[in-house]
Structures are given as C-alpha cells and as structure tokens.
Sequence to fold (265 residues):
Amino acid sequence: MPPAKKRARTYDPGRIRTAILTQLGHVREAVRTLTPEQFALPTRLPGWTVRDLAAHVAMGVETVSRTIDRDEPPRPELTLLDWPFATAVRADDIADGTRQLAAAHPDLDALFAGTAARLTESLATAPGARLLAARTGAMTLDDYLVTRTVELVVHTDDLNAAVPGLDVPYDRQALAAATRLLADALAAKAPGGSTEVRIPPYAVVQCVEGPRHTRGTPPNVVETDPLTWIRLASGRVSWKDAVEEANVRASGERADLGGLLPLLR
Fold:
C-alpha cells in the first residue's frame, strides 16, 4: 500500500501579511542609516551594490501591489512548492530591473515608504484566493505572499553580509515561513523518508529515497539553524563549507544533501 500523500503546509494569511510589512520596515530603518560609501559597497550578488540590493528588496515587495492591479489570470499555474524552482528563468530580467530602479530612485527611503503604503492599501481589499499574474506563473495571493518572506529574509541576510555591523533584525514569522517553504521544497525535490532534516525551531522534513524509519532516532539526520539553511537553499553558502564550519551536522550515508542544493537559482 503506498504511503499517504502528505498534506500541504498551510500559513496564516494575517501573520504572513504582518510579517512582510514588519520585515520591510526593518530593512527601511537600516537603509536610512547607510552612508554613500556603504551604499557603494559590493554584495554577494555579482555586480550588485548595496544600493542595488536595497532597491531590489523594495521591488520584491512592490510586485504584490503591482500584480494585484493587473487583470486576474484564468487559472493557477504554480503551487507554492513550484515557486522555488521557477525563479531561475527570471534572473537576468531581475538584475536589469533592479539597477534601473536603483538609478531612478535616489531617495530610497521614499521608495520604501511608497512601497509599504501601496502594499497596505492593496491588501486591505484583495482576497487571499485572488490569482496573481506573477512573472514566474499565476498563483494565489496568499501563496505569493509566502514567497515574499523568502525574498525578504534572503536579501536581509545579503545586506547584513555586505555591511559590517548593519544587523538588520529578522521578523520571527518571516524567518519561520521562509525556512518552512524551503524545507518543504527540498522534500518535494527529493521525496522519500530515509533522511530527516531538522531546522529548529521551525521545520522538520523527511526526504531522500531509501529505507524509511518508523521509530527511534532515524539513521540519517541533518540539522542546522534557520539562517544557515536559507543560505544553503539560496546558494549563499555551499554544503561542503557549511559542514566544514560545523554549521551543519550530518550523520548517515544518506545525509549528504550537497547534490540537492541550492534550491533557488
């Protein structure tokens, strides 16, 4: 008898909406403190300065209100777990749009303020089941908002890595949602029950084909913290480096996830 199909994880829409606005506010407050010299610093993203990256954070959230204003597509094209694997095709367009946006908005604080205001207004009346014509594919508003937590958390971490001492805080709900979505994406990419991936306190998933454990400690275990997991899933750090630096603990012959990562391209 085949194993029962896992029920898709659900997210509280109200908490996700609050998390997005809160994390956007954290980034805005940090960006306000940056000097021209800090804005010119390079980032992990090739060819992107801190100014480019900050503008991209606003752009990633602005897509919500912008797509709500478009006509609703006739049918969904992506589920939430499809999204991480649909982002790579847009990489070049995103880079070009980001640089144009940064050049067009010398006052980044005004850009962030406008983005937050438009998002708040759009979300006040838009139902979560409304379909959005996102560039990656049509999906529901509620699902698309969960993807924005990934964008915000990943790029908050990029900003913190680029500017020593910036220390932009992470909203707990945003970090939790981003961690869970990327953990579930791993389980979708490598279905199975031989390996348990633990990312306390937010997620535990079973993945990788092989013998399935039913009780006690599983033979193959991977454990890491949320930010390391997000860096692995987004390609900011390699599996080899994370293990060597003891940021990942992996035991068992099926616990090497290096060939499955990153998830986002």
Observations:
- The CA atoms of residues 250 and 256 lie 7 Å apart.
- The mean pLDDT is 93.
- The first helix runs from residue 13 to 31.
